[in-house]
Design brief:
Structural class: alpha/beta
Distance between the termini: 63 Å
Shape: globular
Number of helices: 16
Strand content: 5-15%
CATH superfamily of one domain: Alkaline Phosphatase, subunit A
Order of helices and strands: HEHEHHHHEEHEHHEHEEHHEEEEHHHH
Largest sheet: 8 strands, mixed
CATH class of one domain: Alpha Beta
Helix content: 25-40%
CATH architecture of one domain: 3-Layer(aba) Sandwich
Length: 528
């Protein structure tokens, strides 16, 4: 009997010791934050001291891409570590199936003994149905976490409107700081369980509507902002004709209506980002107060970038730099000092988030994941062999649905759509020296060798879509649409309709709604 008791005690001590050795992990996700909208990425017009400090103490990834630059698809990719064509999740396609969510990083970590929590905008439906809508509780994985504080749909900047956050509304009426207050309670609660924790917060900021926390009105008061050097329609004439057909170019008028409108919009956008920065500071303060800072990894990124008027674009979606790139900072307090404050130039992507989080927890990634463990890149960069990732847009009007591949130096995009007015178009940018993507080298004889190389990399990625793409939710069609050798007749059965036809249909529907007394949505305010 004494031996049994002694054995149990040893097991308990060993288990507790293992739990303490495993690091806590905090994953912070802003919404629509371009890397260029972050101080540590070289923008002196934004105030992000806590992000800047995190980068100084951790690792900043200079070339971090969202392989699909729209929220629902990107969030499914982040959760599962798979490209969109394998998750099967995006607007106009379908939700994330429950069997795929079962292999997501928060579910796996909970199974491995982590205490898990989620707050903020989940941003997609987890369901075996057909609807991507996530405005009902039964479409959200409320019970998949030990502590759930997520919200319906796009959520609200008003804390009181979020069911699981309303208790913080009096002290923090704007949701951004309220999530940091929830984080404090979660960390205290998690500490009491004697388990390692994984806390994920998805801020609404800086997503539209651009309604910043008035608490920070003083930060940008009286400031005037410079426009990006590739701002406006005059800097879009060299782009593929397909690229300028969608709502990214034709809507979002507030970025270009007037100088006053631009200044107000960019101020509010930057102020929302400052709110996220402040929340990061609140969370780090809590970690210190609770004595767990030395064993807590912090990962900060965003679900996609934002165009902010570059090339006359608003929003995201397209595979250009502003919309597809986001900040990525990883802080691991256990990293030797000599390896901190490093700026890593290798290509990273949202497919890497789940494998990296699992690796930090000492858990092997499922074989279905496409991403890489960025811990390896930090510890042994020479062993990190991946040089490119694919960028896809599988949403919206036919013309803008495209695929590209990107390396540290080059980006290739194939715009598949063709009709009487446009042919399939290739774009090749030497982004190593042309970060603003102002010079298309696809027809430049001096870049012919590089064009062939990027075409070859593109074709390899297309072959993966053929072999690995889900059979669900209309994804197999992309093995035809994105084929550089497919004809117009080959593609025709898979097209939805031209942009102008879709616009006409939308206007007719809007007119009918107006007759019923319902408010018509303004351009650029659609909830995606």
């Amino acid at each position: 009997m004494k031996k049994v008791i002694l054995s149990l005690i040893i097991c308990a001590i060993t288990s507790s010791s293992f739990a303490q050795k495993r690091p806590n992990i905090i994953f912070l996700l802003s919404d629509d934050q371009a890397s260029i909208a972050t101080g540590c990425y070289g923008n002196d017009q934004v105030v992000t001291p806590n992000m800047d400090k995190l980068a100084e103490e951790g690792i900043l990834f200079e070339n971090h891409y969202n392989t699909t630059a729209i929220c629902a698809a990107s969030r499914a990719i982040i959760l599962t570590g798979m490209y969109e064509y394998k998750t099967g999740c995006n607007f106009d396609h379908g939700p994330l199936q429950t069997k795929k969510f079962a292999k997501s990083y928060p579910v796996i970590l909970r199974e491995q003994g982590y205490y898990t929590g989620f707050a903020g905008k989940f941003g997609l439906a987890v369901s075996d149905g057909n609807s991507i809508k996530h405005n009902k509780w039964d479409k959200l994985p409320v019970d998949a976490f030990d502590n759930w504080a997520g919200g319906l749909g796009q959520t609200s900047y008003k804390t009181a409107n979020n069911k699981y956050m309303s208790k913080y509304a009096e002290a923090y009426p704007h949701s951004t700081r309220a999530y940091a207050a929830w984080a404090k309670d979660f960390i205290v609660e998690a500490k009491q369980t004697d388990k390692p924790f994984c806390m994920s917060i998805s801020f609404k900021a800086p997503h539209m509507p651009f309604s910043p926390d008035q608490y920070f009105d003083y930060v940008y008061e009286g400031k005037k902002y410079k426009k990006p050097e590739n701002y406006g329609a005059e800097n879009a004439t060299h782009l593929a004709p397909q690229a300028v057909t969608g709502r990214q170019y034709k809507s979002y008028d507030f970025w270009r209506d007037s100088e006053e409108s631009y200044q107000e919009t960019i101020k509010n956008y930057n102020q929302l980002i400052h709110g996220v920065d402040y929340a990061l500071g609140m969370i780090r303060k809590t970690l210190e107060e609770q004595g767990v800072a030395d064993n807590t990894i912090i990962i900060f990124t965003s679900d996609n970038g934002y165009s902010c008027g570059a090339h006359n674009f608003g929003g995201k979606v397209l595979p250009y730099e502003e919309s597809s790139k986001s900040p990525l900072i990883i802080y691991d307090p256990r990293t030797p000092l000599k390896k901190r404050g490093v700026r890593q130039e290798k290509i990273t992507a949202n497919i890497d988030m789940a494998p990296t989080i699992l690796s930090y927890a000492g858990v092997k990634s499922p074989a279905n994941m496409d991403g890489e463990d960025l811990g390896l890149l930090i510890k042994k960069p020479k062993k990190f062999k991946r040089e490119t990732v694919a960028l896809t847009n599988m949403w919206g009007n036919d013309e803008i649905q495209a695929m590209g591949v990107v390396s540290k130096e080059w980006k290739y995009i194939f715009w598949q759509y063709e009709d009487d007015n446009m042919n399939p178009t290739e774009e090749l940018y030497h982004i190593g020296i042309d970060r603003l993507e102002m010079s298309n080298k696809a027809s430049d004889p001096s870049a012919k060798k590089q064009l062939e190389k990027m075409r070859s990399i593109y074709d390899v990625q297309l072959d993966k879509i053929r072999k690995e793409g889900t059979k669900d939710n209309l994804y197999q069609k992309y093995s035809i649409l994105f084929d550089r050798n497919a004809t117009a007749e080959d593609k025709k059965p898979y097209l939805l309709g031209t942009y102008d036809e879709l616009q006409k249909q939308g206007k007719e529907k809007g007119t009918k709604k107006n007759k019923k007394g319902k408010k018509k949505k303004k351009n650029g305010k659609k909830k995606n």
